[in-house]
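Exercise 3.2. Students should predict the tertiary structure of the chain below and write it as structure tokens, then compare their answer with the key that follows.

Predict this chain's 3D structure.
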Amino acid sequence: MSNDETFAAAYREHYWAVSRYVARRLDGRTGEVEEVVAEVFTVAWRRRTDLPATPLPWLYGVARNCLANAVRGHGRRRRLVDRLGNDETAHGRQTVAGPDSEGPGSWVHEALARLSPADQEVLRLTAWEELAVDEVAVALGCGSRAAAMRLHRARRRLRAEIDRLRPPAVEALTEEHRHG
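Answer key:
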């Protein structure tokens, strides 16, 4: 199979997985998803001779870099808008959350958000993208042992945050389950 055919096969097979990966990390900024995914596959096209036999973890690694660039660009734009005084509150579009706006399990998301970006990413790669440790290593650009250690430490830190934030009702149910 030629490099062009290898790229075309990777694109067909993994386009939606890469799109979901990017969308989950842009958290509601859907306008940027297609832009970042296009950049991922532009990089993959340019480096099509480097595509591994199992390209998805490699594509996730490229996506991480493209997302970092997009996040930096978003931050620069946001700071510029703030300096110009053209923010949403100036135009009366401020949204206030209602009393029932907290979704179920939101405390788990809060615990995840309290972790470092590196811990969040290793946990997301295993939970959301369902990668094995050796695939996580490819996506992160490190060795398998380092990826396994990062995952172990991130899970331990997440557990500590969850224990800190766990709602009392859940704690009571957990205790009841242990003794029941």
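Discussion points: The radius of gyration is 20 Å. The CA atoms of residues 13 and 124 lie 21 Å apart.
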